[in-house]
């Protein structure tokens, strides 16, 4: 298996291996034997490696299952609290509405009853006032009748003839009085709209009902997700997506094990949509790039994202250009940067951060040593303030800031 030359043994493979004659006892095995030995060692080494890898994989899967179960358990608890809160709110609102309705009905009933009573009293008084003179005339009539009866009973014709003029005067006067006593008329009233109460009852029964809210759907977005679910990149730029759409995107982000890049620039995302995305970031373990350029998340939306950055350990790039986060939003982001150890690129252009907001960022970067690129252009930061911040950040050698 070897060649002998000048007291040397050389490998026939001519691989440069040689040994002196006196050291022949230590001569290596030939290539075939060496390959066999190496294969044997490799098989045993591979088995150990595979076992170790399998152990790690199973452990990872078990942890993933535990995490998924705990997440679903927590979501169930959250939904229970939401149901409790929603039902309490609904009970309160229907009670307020029904109380108001009862107050309106009671007030209207009281008003109408008072109106009826007032009209009743006025009409009765008018008739009583009309009856009083009539009573006087009846009294006078009874006197005249009694006088007349006395004369008839006495059979005194002379006296009767003497009283004739008095009787004529009485009758003429009484006739004139009766003419002045016009027979009263009654003004009639009726309850208008009572026939509408049945319709009103039906309307009341239709209002304030506890009805199911149909789930929100965006067929175009859902089709995009279905077609790209296993891909590493979602580009949803410029699709007029709203806060409701972010709930759909966030649900995917929470469960995804492959998505690493998510671009949501130039949409209609506001603070509620930012909250959905932030909640997903607290759970997601794969996303490294998030683009929210040119939306309207405001300072409240920035706070939601900042809270997520405190726990998220995978996101490295965040674009928030043109989101109107202002000084308050910059302060929230700054607080997150004090503890975040994964973010390397942060875009905050065109956010009305101004000097105060920029100072918050600068103070945070005196602690943070992970961020390498920061874009603060078009934020109304004066040159004097920029110079101060450049001096303040001079010790952070790895950081590049664009003003």
From TrEMBL:
Name of the protein in its database record: Uncharacterized protein
Stored SMART domains: LRR_RI
Domain of life per record: Eukaryota
The entry's keywords: Repeat
Native organism: Rotaria sordida
Zinc listed as a keyword: no
